[in-house]
Amino acid sequence: MADDAMLKFVGRTQSYPDKRPADLRAEDFREIAERYAVPDAEAQAGRCSQCGVPYCSVHCPLHNHIPDWLRLTAEGRLREAYQLSNSTSTMPEICGRICPQDRLCEGNCVIEFSGHGAVTIGSVEKFITDTAWEQGWVEPVHVGAATGQSVGIIGAGPAGLSAAEYLRTAGHDVHVYDRHDRAGGLLTYGIPGFKLEKEIVMRRVARLEEAGIVFHCGFEVGRDASLDDLRARHDSILIATGVYKARGIKAPGVGAGGVVEALEYLTASNRKGFGDAVPAYDDGSLNAAGKHVVVVGGGDTAMDCVRTAIRQGAASVKCLYRRDRANMPGSQREVGNAEEEGVEFVWLSAPEAFDGGDTVSGVRAARMRLGAPDASGRRAPEIDPGSGFQLPADLVIKALGFEAEDLPTLFGAPSLGVTRWGTVRADGKTMMTSLDGVFAAGDIVRGASLVVWAIRDGRDVAAHMHAWMRARADAAVRAA
Ligand code: FAD
Ligand code: SF4
Ligand code: SF4
């Protein structure tokens, strides 16, 4: 049966779900891809060659059982496919939407290397779990027998939420603290709806609430409690706060009105999508409508900003990046989407100054050229002398990446160990920080990374925390 349904990659061409036309999708914040119809999902899953050593799974940070759930999908056994997919991931439908598959599972699919085009793994993964939600197959979290122990999780992003789910399953009381008014971290307020519609995130959060996980939103550790206060309340703590210190630009005029931070801009847009009152959007300061917009940067955040500006009705949108297309960190797929939607990329260019006094009116930029490779192997950009040019701009968005905040100071915890980059130092084996019973996971340990790695860390750290708490409970029984 399996052989009948599978190995169809020679005669059946790769086909992703259709994208909505660029002019239509630029009018709203809905996701751009349509869903597979059932026969298409089955047919695409059936292209898998069922490798004995599946490189797709090896390169998936969650080591998802990809060939197995592809086979179940191809055979029309969708509910089983969902159960298997769900067994290694807390958010398969989210990863299916926003993982950079070209660098992970699909980029390592053997039939991509043989020239047939990778199996469309991410789109099938999304299809499986979207179907499961529609069919009511997604079950409540199975809460284990109560351990009488309590966990405090700081940060409700994918790392914190994943750990919360596994720790609740293990029977612990789980409290999640987040400074935002909604859970989800960057899934909620960073990533725009055209990549990930917000209902997808909110239904995951609701499922965790229904399992008895207590969310303390609007609670900022460092302002509303110190780390020690939380340690006194809980048996163990997880720090999963992500990285939020925006990298700056050193150039004259950078403090002018109209030069804004990427995350403030994206958060304002996402809040409008929720129907919130956002004064800085309504007064125009964080709204691109009618403006000439220049976004500085070449990563995922910059891609999200340019495409948001298009949807807000900008007069023009340019992306200024100091390297070339081949050397940018952002996904090539996203560059393609942005170009289709009308974004102009100005490669090998960097800002030198911002004109206009109080309010920005233009960007003076220099042309760059790529020199010798640096320590990371990427060719370092250097200024091409005498190559300056100017771009008109009345909104400039700085999207140069993020670093860790100074958590030891913010949390009132000077003995919390950090690396020279400010990320929290966690033991490679136990994921525990320098403080007993305080663990860390996600971007705050790795530096800015990916959702799928945050989910993986949440899964791993939950196992370590559970083992540590059980050992402590056992020791207490022995001592009694
Ligand atoms: P976060 O998601 O950042 O969550 C941390 C949470 O901690 C936040 O809710 C924050 O409010 C809370 N917090 C912080 N400090 C405190 C405090 N003191 N007290 C209480 N709460 C606190 N990855 C992908 O895989 N695909 C993408 O397409 C993608 N696009 C991205 C687009 C943008 C604009 C950005 C910025 C990132 C993107 N990423 C993407 C990266 C991805 O979002 C992150 O790697 C991931 O969200 C990290 O998860 P996390 O749980 O570690 O942290
Ligand atoms: Fe691919 Fe990401 Fe899904 Fe893994 S989680 S199979 S990398 S889309
Ligand atoms: Fe199937 Fe490609 Fe994975 Fe091989 S690498 S098992 S062909 S999805």
UniProtKB/TrEMBL annotation:
The keyword Membrane does not apply. Coiled coil: none annotated. One of its GO terms (molecular function) is metal ion binding. It comes from the Bacteria. Pfam families: Fer4_20, Pyr_redox_2. It comes from Sphingomonas hengshuiensis. This is Dihydropyrimidine dehydrogenase. Residues 25-136 form the Dihydroprymidine dehydrogenase domain. InterPro entries: DPD_II, FAD/NAD-bd_sf, FAD/NAD-binding_dom, GltD-like, Helical_ferredxn. Residues 151-458 form the FAD/NAD(P)-binding domain. NCBIfam families: gltD_gamma_fam. Keywords: 4Fe-4S, Iron, Iron-sulfur, Metal-binding, Oxidoreductase.
